[in-house]
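User: Could you walk me through two proteins back to back? I'd like the raw sequence and the structure tokens for each, with a short line separating them so I can tell where one ends and the next begins.

Assistant: Of course. Protein one, sequence then structure:
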Amino acid sequence: GRAFMPMIMGFGCSLPAMINTRTLADEQERTATVRVIPFFSCGAKLPILTAVAGAIVTSFGVGNADLITYGMYVLGIVTAIVCVLLMRSTTMRGDVPPFIMELPAYHRPLFKGLMIHLWDKTKHFVKKAFTIIFASTIIIWFLSSFSWDWRFLLEEIEYEGEMIMVNLHTEQSILGSIGMLIQPLFTPLGFGSQLGANGWVFAVAAITGLVAKENVIATFGTLAAAVAGAYISTEEGITEVVAMIGATNITIPALIAFIAFNMLTIPCFAACATAKAELPKGKFKWTLLFWVCTSYLVSCMIYLVGSWWWTVFIFAAVIAA
């Protein structure tokens, strides 16, 4: 019904999509819609999809990057629909309000209106890029360049006739130790303890993505060179992910699970602030738990079924029950 429009708007940005749920008359329908809007991948998540999908094709020589990216969009839509059905039949039971919507008369957009809209979006992105993303990248670099005893870990080495600064001891850094601490939490998802000493980079990238989804690829760009032990040049994030695949021997199901987790987990801080403002009092903390649990379970399912196909029967039995 009316929830269709906010959901579709989620492909652009979760913020206006959540605000648009004010058109919904039923409070339970509105809460359920706000919770599933982040599952419709916004533009900030696209670099994660394209980088990891491109790295899968480059490293393993299988699949098609476009189909993998499209498949993850479909996964988000299916997850949203399933979650809404589950919520409406369990915790949010109630009569569905009748669907009556009056559409306005649509006209050809004015050039001036388009330019105002474009300027507003550009200003928003530039502000976000030079505050949240830029500050987060600096913090990641700082934490990965210093140890707990404030020892500077960057060393100057020669690469193709040029002297460059590379961190060859990232595991000794502040960020490395924190990443190793949380790394086991992602073991059921395929990018945890099984990846060895360098697998903490995936865990850290997933955590920094909670600030802004663009941080996931920025984290790879900052840490991949040090972990892979070579100089990495940027190519839309693909090169960095390829380097991490070589350094960790991560599998294809684990990489797909990594994409799914970042797509479905807690959105960026700005979207969280909007959700808190739009949800009824006391619902936000449960919404955060809902996002974490959904992303964790879906990613775990993808990894287990992708690694051991027969586990699909176990999940089918559980879902049926």
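----
Protein two, same layout:
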Amino acid sequence: MPAVEAEEAMKTVLGVSVGSTTARAAALAIADESVCSAGVVRSFGAAGQVAAAVQLLETTAAAQHVVPADRVIAVPDDPAGRAKRSAYAMHEAERFTVVSELGAQLRFLRGTGQLDGIRTVAVCDIGASGTTVSLAEPATGRVLISRRTTLFGGKVCDNAVRDYLLSTYGADELVSSSGVDALMVAIGLAREQLSSLRVAEIPGPFVAGAVRLWRSSFDEIVESAVRYIEGWTASVIVDAPQSMNALVMVGGCAHLPILRRVLRRDLRLPVLVPNMPESLTAHGAALLASDAARRRTRRPLVSVKTIEVPPTTYDTPTYGPMARHRSSA
């Protein structure tokens, strides 16, 4: 193998996603787009979310020897402005390239083959701070409609659980603000656990000590909020100038069994939930970095593997190694 080709085969690209409470990174080997490294930073203030993501990008890039041209950061953008440009539009900065989080999500989904044959798709991004629904054409990146609400998300669910627990079990009179903050972290962890478990234990400032939260109780607590977001999502889809072929759930709250159940039952659309929906934005950003690197060198992908994806996903998420992707360039 010539030296230039050998160097290209060993090259690594990097993608980072910016969330309201979490930043994630994924480094891929450009030769076959397998995952070399993944990282996450959690629980930072809203004002510091971009700084935390950039710091994660710089740290991972240094460890993986990724040059600035091969770094892509996926950022939240104004949903109202998405229809004015392609979701795949990229903007070069000095230390990295910037892309919309929707573009990174669509790129990941195209790479898995889950959008094969789908002309239009609704991407329902349910994160900690709210929900964004974007209706787009995956092949072109054209965005038909994109809207956001803060009336449903991880924080809404966690606040409802906090109010329920404190009213049901009572709080220690000496509880401090730091104790309440610790309780919210514990509730967020319990919400994640209840995506696959029937019960989770929550330590906290309760009179009788730690309490158990059953999934059935959690479902009752958040049911009204889930019904709201189902109706709101349906109204966005109804307003589209074209019919949707499928809905894809992404973001951390895509793990919620009650949310999957209600959307699949009421939307009258195929509802897809990719494996690890909270991590795919960073992975998609890395795939866009890989696409750009190959365009610059005008070299084809050295090794290509296609993922076999079932028409629906399991209700219990698995956390195995990330699969390889095929190029959509």
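Confidence is low (pLDDT under 50) at residues 301-329.

Let me know if you want the two compared in more detail.
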